[in-house]
Amino acid sequence: MAVYDELLALDWPGEFVVEYGNGTSERLMRGEGVEFLLPADDPDECGGLFASLPKMRPRNQKQGGRFIRFTELRAVCSTDGRRLWPDA
Q1: Are 84 and 16 a contacting pair, CB within 8 Å?
Q2: What letter does residue 62 receive in the DSSP assignment?
Q3: What value, to the nearest 5°, has the Cα angle with vertex 18 and ends 34 and 7?
Q4: Quick check: helix, strand or coil at residue 39?
Q5: In this predicted structure, what is the pLDDT of residue 87?
Q6: For residues 26 and 19, what is the distance between their CA atoms, to the nearest angstrom?
Q7: Is the link from the previous residue into 13 a cis peptide, with omega within 30 of 0?
Q8: What's the pLDDT tens digit per position in 17-76?
Q9: Contacts by 75-84, CB closer than 8 A, 24 or more apart
Q10: How far is Cα 59 from Cα 47, in angstroms, rounded to an integer?
């Protein structure tokens, strides 16, 4: 199964942690939904996902986001450390 098929099938929690291939991690939010760019629609043919960044201050009106290429992604975990993808 392709990476994007597995990620599309996830029941995304409200908040989650992504682990990158370079060893760093970042907390992200589902927001209005995790969006996907499939490899067939990507000029670089990598594909990726877009998720919301937590607001730095609750009064901020704009919600930032992060685009992550599938090739950069090592794992997706719940905020309590449970691995959601790939299957443990």
Answers
A1: yes
A2: P
A3: 45
A4: helix
A5: 81
A6: 7
A7: no
A8: 999 999 999 999 998 889 999 999 999 999 999 999 987 777 766 778 999 999 999 999
A9: 75/18, 75/19, 76/7, 76/10, 76/16, 76/17, 76/18, 76/19, 77/16, 77/17, 77/18, 77/19, 78/13, 78/16, 78/17, 79/13, 79/15, 79/16, 79/17, 79/27, 84/10, 84/13, 84/16
A10: 33
Q: Is residue 59 helix, strand or coil?
A: coil
The pair of structure tokens assigned to 78 is 């719940």
Dist CA 84 CA 7 (whole Å): 9
Q: 43-77 burial string, b = 16+ CB within 10 Å, else e?
A: eeeebbbebbeeeeeeeeeeeeeeebbbeebeebb
Task: For the chain, give the number of residues.
Answer: 88
pTM: 0.86
